[in-house]
């Protein structure tokens, strides 16, 4: 076994959208074993939009990454060495490994995986994104058969499962996605009833008309992943007592599309439509993760839900894949493959 590991460190704080110079690829000594810890060789790494917030000097709901520190993130991999009961060499595990080839973690911070499904599913459909969709729709969307759901970023790992769960519950589902290819994917692969390409419209008013044409009975649930002009387009179309589960505003993560104050329009719509808008952070609901796995694992194994993974090869390509993902360049769950 090599005595060196590789990692992606935060080289500087981004100004707006991250650029490659904000990251550095470094070699470091392999971490030393300690009682109760497990050394993991990372095979797959998850890239997620929340990581952009961790790059700021002042964190939001979680701690910032220190300058020079390893970028935060969940990974899956194989146990190389174990100094903890319940873990043996060769076990497949997942935990917060960071953007690194290896990680030394306390045993209580790891979860063992079986080999009945690809281990990368623990980062997507059976991981934090899938759990976000399952929890947010159930707790804050409160879907009822016959209602209409609109999902922003509908072909991503969260939005695509939201749409499929809602469709299974008897709702009309409308996707908002970027580009004709993704709109086709939303309908043909993920089963949405209709899809609207937000890139085909320069402003919110034209986009609103296109969404309105696909939601003749109004919108009961808007799953918010994006913010920006999609939010501005959708909110006036909401039905009275509609619900807005809010789990992301990726359009504003880099500071873009924030030149105009849209708050008066959105806030008034919330008032007059008596909307329920629930911001939620999935880590607040982690006690329900075992329930999610128990329900969804057999259904995913049975092929009840479609999911896609966009795989970049090599740790050195993680920054580029991350930047592309923030700009909508991924198709499905963005993963970095480090090893077989």
Written overview of the protein:
The chain has 340 residues and is α/β, with parallel strands linked by helices. Helix content is 26%, strand content 25%. The chain has nine helices and 15 strands. The strands form three sheets. Strands 3, 4, 5, 6, 7, 14 and 15 form a seven-stranded mixed beta sheet that branches. It has a six-stranded parallel beta sheet with strand order 10-9-8-11-12-13, with helices on both faces. Helix 7 links the parallel strand 12 (238-246) and strand 13. It is globular. The chain starts with a strand and ends with a strand. The mean pLDDT is 91.
Number of strands: 15
Low-confidence stretches: none
Shape: globular
Largest sheet: 7 strands, mixed
Overall pLDDT metric: 91
The number of distinct helices, counting runs of at least 4 residues, comes to: 9
Q: Structural class, please?
A: alpha/beta
Helix residue percentage: 25-40%
Separation of termini?
16 Å
Share of β-strand residues:
25-35%
Q: Write down the secondary-structure element order.
A: EEEHEEEEHEHEHEHEHEHEHEHE
**C-alpha-based Rg, rounded:** 20 Å
Short description:
With 340 residues, the chain is of the alpha/beta class. The chain has helices at 50-54, 128-141, 157-168, 180-188, 204-214, 228-234, 263-272, 289-301, 318-326, and strands at 4-10, 23-29, 37-46, 75-82, 92-95, 102-106, 111-112, 148-152, 172-177, 194-197, 219-223, 238-246, 276-279, 309-313, 333-337.
């Amino acid at each position: 076994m090599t005595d060196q590991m590789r990692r992606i460190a935060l080289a500087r704080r981004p100004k707006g959208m991250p650029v490659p110079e904000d990251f550095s690829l470094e070699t470091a000594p392999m971490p030393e074993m300690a009682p109760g810890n497990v050394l993991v060789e990372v095979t797959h790494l998850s890239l997620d939009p929340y990581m952009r917030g961790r790059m700021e000097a002042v964190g939001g709901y979680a701690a910032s990454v220190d300058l020079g520190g390893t970028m935060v993130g969940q990974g899956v991999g194989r146990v190389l060495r174990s100094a903890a009961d319940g873990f043996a060499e060769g076990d497949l595990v997942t935990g917060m490994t960071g953007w690194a080839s290896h990680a030394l973690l306390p045993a209580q911070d790891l979860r063992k995986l079986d080999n009945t499904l690809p281990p990368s599913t623990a980062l997507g459909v059976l991981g934090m994104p899938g759990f976000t969709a399952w929890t947010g729709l159930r707790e804050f969307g409160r879907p009822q058969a016959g209602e209409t759901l609109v999902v922003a970023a509908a072909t991503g790992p969260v939005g695509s499962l939201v749409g499929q769960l809602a469709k299974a519950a008897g709702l009309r589902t409308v996707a908002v996605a970027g580009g004709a290819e993704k709109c086709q994917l939303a309908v043909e692969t993920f089963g949405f009833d209709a899809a609207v390409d937000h890139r085909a419209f320069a402003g919110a008013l034209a986009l609103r008309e296109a969404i309105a044409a696909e939601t003749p009975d109004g919108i009961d649930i808007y799953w918010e992943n994006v913010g920006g002009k999609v939010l501005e387009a959708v909110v006036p179309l909401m039905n009275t007592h509609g619900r807005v589960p809010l789990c992301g505003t990726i359009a504003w993560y880099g500071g873009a599309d924030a030149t105009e104050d849209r708050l008066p329009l959105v806030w008034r719509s919330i008032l007059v439509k008596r909307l329920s808008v629930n911001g939620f952070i999935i880590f607040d609901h982690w006690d329900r993760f075992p329930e999610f796995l128990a329900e969804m694992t057999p259904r995913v194994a049975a092929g009840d839900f479609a999911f896609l993974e966009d795989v970049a090869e090599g740790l050195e390509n993680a920054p580029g894949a991350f930047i592309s993902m923030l700009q909508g360049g991924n198709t499905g769950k963005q993963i970095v493959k480090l090893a077989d």
